[in-house]
Amino acid sequence: MKGLHLHVDCASGAAGDMLLGALIDLGVPVEAIGDALDAVGAGRWRLRVAGAVRGGVAAVDVTVDTKATEDAAFRLAHTHAHAPHGHHRYAAIRARIVDAAFAPGVRERALDIFDRLARAEAKLHGMSVADVEFHEVGAIDSIVDVVGTAAALAWLAPTGITCREVAMGSGTLRCAHGVLPVPAPAALEVMREAGGVMADGNLARELCTPTGAAILAHAVTAWTAAPRGRARGVGWGAGDASFADRPNVLRVTAYEPAAADPDTVWQLDANVDDMSPELCAPALDAIFAAGALDAWWTPITMKKGRPALGLSALVAGAAARDAVTAAILAHTTTIGVRYAPRERVVLARRTVEVATRYGAIAVKVASDATGTVRNAAPEYEACAAAALRAGVPAKLVFAAALAAYDAQQ
User: pLDDT at position 173, please?
Assistant: First the structure.
């Protein structure tokens, strides 16, 4: 299932455990998720994975063991100054994620998801992000869901993720602050910030949790219908409640494009002539985090012969276009962004693993509409990690992976 496009169906809402369950059902090894939980100190023992049936649909049910143990590694509540008993300060949670020895891609995803949650809570409660507090049980549950899902997405390495809309629910909910309207304020703020598409869901209860909203806000690259293509895998994640009118499940489908037909993306462009080069890299990071499919800097010459940089980005969909535009305006010194639709042809992509003397290496394979392979390239992160372990140049691992792939053909 690696290297395919993912589409998320949220007719019954979204929660962290539902998303994680669907990704496990899709084929993500529980061991990869457990490694990430061990790295952050939460412990793989907290994760409970079982089969379940919701409304006649078989799904994977994920639960989190929040019980305290004598040797529990995640004890932030008592190690951070001024944190009330039974609460975790976000600053401490974030520090633990930053320091963890994750597999490539996990840290960045987990931080972005948790940052979205913390920003929403900070805005709602009128405090700084660092001072946001999570109740102990809720914090542990969120850490497992967020870090686990980040690990699952990093393992899958999807080419893109789409979602048409998220059922949020309606009515009211009771929490520590009393009775509040649904959608839950934090979930609504996360979706608002991300430009996510919401629907009522025709059910008078909370359907989308803040954690579910934050994961979708991070992962979805375009809020649109499922793409044209062939389904290569389907994963179902179970929710906790039982509904009379529908199965309480979330579905993730892995798609392989049916053919290299033209599709349309937006290209955003801006000229920058007054920004420190040191800020270029973090600006690109922010642009990718906002949903860009690709982004790049180009040396240009502006009026009066002035050397400058041209910034370009490709995005799919109007929501992503607006989010990336906002990121460009926020993280660069430009005062304007141009955009226009662009047609493109994209080869179908899949990822295979090959065995080399340096270990297993992922190779991305691109094929045309006839199924003819047009390109095969080892994944850089996998080659770099293997080279570091073996103490050899990355180019040797790269060459060995290509040779191993060629030998399989």
Answer: 82
